[in-house]
Task: inverse folding
């Protein structure tokens, strides 16, 4: 059967590269976006021009009704789902004393609750698949375990997702669904623009990281791809760090 995947937040950055990797492996991939329709359509057209099997879908994953509609659309069009990549994320970069209630609510609604609800509504579609190997991969970051200035809200959501991954792996195994998380270190994407003294941060990181370079989206995508096939059957409920060895120092 045709393999169907949904990659949330896949119009750019890590999500786009993960989607491309799965497309190259023969998946039909739902490209998900929320706000930037022009960028999403550009990515969609780019993949169509390369003869990939791709579909475009829009949903605000901080809104449960929109999430439900997204999975209803996938059900109507495809009938089932083999792979869910929970990549979409947002949040507020602030010091703890400057965080407002609405900052907290927004960050946790998108990252924590959004990941939970996408997984919840994906399960019936994944159970409908006849594939012997189905997988959910949650994208987190090393900010869940290590201090990053101004990252307390986002880091908290990533820590929740990593814990959720363990519970999902246990509860969904009987449905033939394997669940893991991929935790990226400092990844070379537009998200680095949020950091003050960006160039200094990058140079200092390169000096001390054993790999001698930043993580690139392809590093994340390669591991995600592995976790989506049967070679990773005995890896379950794990958060695998891709940071070039930075967390060893």
Result:
């Amino acid at each position: 059967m045709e393999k169907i995947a949904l990659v949330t937040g896949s119009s750019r950055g890590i999500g786009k590269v993960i989607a491309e990797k799965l497309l190259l492996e023969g998946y039909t991939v739902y490209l998900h976006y929320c706000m930037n329709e022009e960028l999403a359509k550009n990515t969609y057209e780019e993949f169509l021009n390369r003869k990939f099997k791709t579909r475009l879908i829009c949903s605000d994953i901080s809104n449960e009704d929109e999430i439900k509609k997204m999975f209803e659309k996938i059900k109507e069009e495809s009938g089932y789902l083999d792979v869910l990549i929970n990549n979409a994320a947002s949040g507020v970069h602030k010091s703890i004393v400057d965080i407002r209630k609405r900052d907290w609510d927004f960050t946790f609604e998108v990252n924590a609750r959004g990941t939970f609800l996408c997984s919840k509504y994906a399960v019936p579609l994944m159970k409908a698949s006849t594939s012997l190997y189905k997988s959910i991969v949650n994208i987190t970051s090393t900010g869940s375990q290590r201090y990053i200035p101004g990252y307390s809200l986002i880091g908290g959501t990533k820590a929740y997702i990593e814990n959720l991954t363990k519970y999902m792996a246990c509860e969904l195994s009987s449905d033939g669904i394997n669940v893991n998380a991929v935790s990226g270190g400092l990844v070379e994407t537009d998200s680095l623009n949020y950091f003050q003294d960006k160039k200094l941060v990058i140079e200092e990181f390169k000096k001390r990281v054993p790999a001698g370079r930043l993580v690139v989206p392809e590093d994340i995508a390669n591991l995600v791809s592995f976790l989506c096939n049967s070679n990773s059957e005995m890896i379950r409920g794990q958060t695998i760090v891709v940071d070039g060895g930075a967390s060893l120092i």
In short: The chain has one domain: 4-239.
